[in-house]
Amino acid sequence: MAEPIQLSILLTTHSKPEHFEQLLNNCLALRSEKIEIVVINDGSDRKITQFTETTISKSNNDRVFLFEHDEPVGRGLSLNEAIIQATGQLFWAPLRADRLNESLLIESIRRFKSDPTAFWTLDYSLPENPLDWITAAEEGELPDDSCLLWNRKILKASNLFFNPFLNCLQGAELAMRLVEKNVWHQTDPFFVIADDQSPLAEPGDIMEFLQTAFRLFPRPEIRDQILARLKNLNTPSSGTATENDVLLQARQFLDKGDAKRSLELVSRFLRKNPDHHEANYIKISSLEKLRRHVEAAELKHELQKKANATQTQAELFLQQQNEMKTAKKEKKVSLSVVIPTTGLGKSLLESCILKLEEVADPETTELIVVDNASIDDTFDYLEQLQKENFMQINVVTNKTNRGFGASINQGIDAASAPHILIIHNDVHITKQTINPLLNAFEESPDIVLAAPMIDSTDNNTQKKNGPSNNDIIKTDFVDSCCFMIKKDLDIRFDEEYQLCNYEMEDFCMQIIESGKSPAVAKNASADHLRNGTTSAMGLNLAPQCKWINKDRYHKKWNLTDEYVIPGQGSHPDRFEQLGPPDNPLNPDQEWVNTIQEYLTSEVKTEILRNSWSERELITIVSTLLIADERELLRTLEDRLDELKLAPALLLLFVQYYFSKNIYSRCKHYIDKANGTHPIFDLYRLKIMVADKELEEAGPLLTKMLNEFPASPDLFHLAGDLYRQSGDEGEAKSFYAMANQMDPFRFHTDHAAFEINH
Fold first, then answer.
1. For the chain, percent helix, then strand, then coil, each to nearest 5?
2. Helix 503-513 to helix 404-414 angle, to the nearest 10 degrees?
3. How many CB atoms neighbour CB 73 within 10 A?
4. Does residue 439 sit in helix, strand or coil?
5. DSSP SS3 for 559
6. Whole-number Cα distances in Å, 189 to 37, 100, 123
7. Tally of CB atoms within 10 A around 2
8. Which residue from 187, 360, 414, 482 lies 20 to 30 Å from 431 (Cα-Cα)?
């Protein structure tokens, strides 16, 4: 027996074509028998009609119903027809729903079907006062139909219709009619809500909103205000005085240091005047004062693109002529230098480029900078270098930090010279860098990568003043901070690794597997400031990134040992010989199974009854902790209280208990750590945020951001704090910055699907 329909999804062809096509595909992919889809093709063009019919036919979905109009009648009438055809208790009429999440949708249906609520708004608050509805419609602050879900079981049939005289915001107008006499709730969405989800109403729609409000609210004082608004709506205005007043007020707020109020004012103005030059630059200044540098940089990009698009043909012709003349004078480029940068890396990048300028020939060197979503004024600095055509610079800009490997691949692909020098932004090359590395390739045809000696590295082969009898040493690994390759090398970095670990080991392994070799040139040198960029990003606050990459690297190259516990020796000795997994936070199931099979009742009894040395006890406890043997672990933990534990073990305990929401045990081990590493402050802060201790969390967050001003972990926690305080705009801004700095762990849809503690 088929399950009864609980949700009807009403789709009309009034969405933008790309949104409608995505919606239809996503909805047809839903597997639940509780959902039906009603599609109204409102006299759309041949392309959409053909797409709709073909897609529905291919889906073989017996819960989709298509109705077609020969001539368009409008979205309001189409939705009213769809309501009549629909059978579900709940209905949803989306125009756009990016990354529709079926599991969250099913959970919403489960919660809503027995809830006596008339309708729900997804991630939107509705206005409280009658006239505020009109203002919200004018300023694009009302949800579009996608963000409203209706309960026909509660709603009276006489009220359940969409206004056929509106061009947009049919759902918002229905909500305004229902809100006074029905219960509604705001809830989490089951799809990603885009920034442009709220449309700006046209004057005709504003007129319809005013007329609806006039009928709904009979109080004389409100009706007088509505009539006055209707009169003003019909009266032409110059617009100049209003424009000047708004921009003057925005500038005044900015001058007084109130960048937030300035941004609110100018953003509203730009919704109606998107190309207004002065307003855009007030917005950029406001964003930069609020430390939202990435948004400001993107806006500058857009303005520059528009400016370039308006150049006259004569200017373009002259520009092309000048470029041709310059090209004739230039020598052939013989070296490409690739420098990735991110976060707050401008000062490091400037210093790096100054050192490069001292030793490289500007006429034969091409500089390629890959800007991985910097959040300082790196964009302005690079823009100035481009204007000066400094070292024939080519800038590659990423909206999110794609990681070292991906950025180097972009640089290699953009390079035009036969040799490519790749350096971190915290490296200073010297007169003994470029030529000795070039010469290393002459030593042997097998050498396809050459690296210098450096003053700060964990790679013993590259340490300065190290013993060596050879000028060129073939090796299996070099430090990623500075190396040179040939352009024709057909090997690229694996972009699946998370930030900053094991990408270079993998790259060198690919070279070796191809029958070639990396090498170190002992007569080449470079200076490495080390961790300049990663320190600001606080990557030492996220050791799990390294563990994940290590695990991936070992599995990819079959370097993981077989998990076997020796047959002889004491229990801790056997655990030591087995060794820990590559990722202690997410150990291989095979490793866990090996431990669990070993821990028979007899072995557990022996472990509990025996007296162990400090080393043996820590070995046993570490193993039990990673294997999640909680019962046995908890019994042994008390023996650790008098011991001084290493920070690495304390961190494992903190992470273990935090993942189980046992914050009292977390705090116990954080206190034992006694500030030995800033990661313990991070977990203290996470607990404060989880417990919604806003007053205590704020100062600690500020302190940590001063130390790690580009940390994605801290940005995300800042977003949580702002969300808890009710400032959704700031919350989403910080969530976006976390994504920009580390898209591997913090996804763009994270904020939309956030579950509050």
1. 50, 15, 35
2. 50
3. 15
4. helix
5. coil
6. 19, 9, 6
7. 8
8. 414
Query: Could you state, in chain order, the average pLDDT of each consecutive group of 10 residues for the chain (757 residues)?
Result: 84 93 93 93 92 91 92 93 94 93 90 90 86 82 93 88 90 92 90 79 80 82 80 50 65 74 77 74 78 70 60 48 48 90 90 94 94 87 90 91 92 95 94 94 94 88 71 92 94 90 95 95 89 80 91 91 89 92 92 94 93 93 93 89 90 93 93 92 95 92 91 93 87 87 76 35
How is 206-253 classified by DSSP, letter by letter?
HHHHHHHHHHH---HHHHHHHHHHHHHHHS----HHHHHHHHHHHHHH
Whether 366 contacts 417, CB under 8 Å: yes
From residue 122, how far is each of 138, 681, 724, 725 by CA, in Å? 20, 35, 17, 19
Q: Which residues contact 219 (CB under 8 A, 6 or more apart)?
A: none
Which residues pair with residue 473 across a beta bridge? Answer: 520
Its pTM stands at 0.61
Distance CA 49, CA 434 (A): 61
- 53 Ramachandran zone, left/alpha/beta (phi>0; psi -120 to 50): alpha
Both structure tokens of 686: 């996470």
Tokens of 617: 């006890």
Tokens describing residue 723: 């969300």
Enumerate residues 6+ apart whose C-beta is below 8 A from 509: 476, 557
**Token pair in block for residue 257:** 């240091």
Burial 530-558 (b: 16+ CB within 10 A, else e): bbbbbbbbbbbbbbebbbbbbbbbbeeee
State how far the alpha carbon of 548 is from the alpha carbons of 170, 459, 500, 658, in Å: 48, 21, 11, 19
Strands (E), 543-677: none
Burial (0-12, 13-18, 19+ Cβ within 10 Å), 728? middle
Residue in 79, 78, 53, 77 with CA at minimum distance from that of residue 66: 53
- Tell which residue, 575, 653, 567, has the closest CA to residue 607: 575
Residues counted in the chain: 757
Amino acid letter, residue 731: A
Residue recorded with tokens 């409008």? 74
Phi, psi angle pair for 447, to nearest 5°: -80, 115
Using left for φ > 0, alpha for ψ between -120 and 50, and beta otherwise, residue 61 falls in beta
453, two tokens: 């000696």
3-state class (DSSP) for residue 422: strand
DSSP strand E in 103-230: where? 119-122, 148-151, 184-187
Query: Nearest to residue 344, comparing CAs of 304, 373, 370, 301?
Result: 373
CA atoms of 421 and 340, how far apart (whole Å): 12
Question: What DSSP string runs through 42-78?
Answer: ES--HHHHHHHHHHHHHHT-TTEEEEEESS---HHHH
Instruction: List, in sequence order, every residue forming a beta bridge with 92; answer none if it has no partner.
Output: 9, 149
The three-class DSSP label of residue 40 is strand
DSSP three-state, residue 51? helix
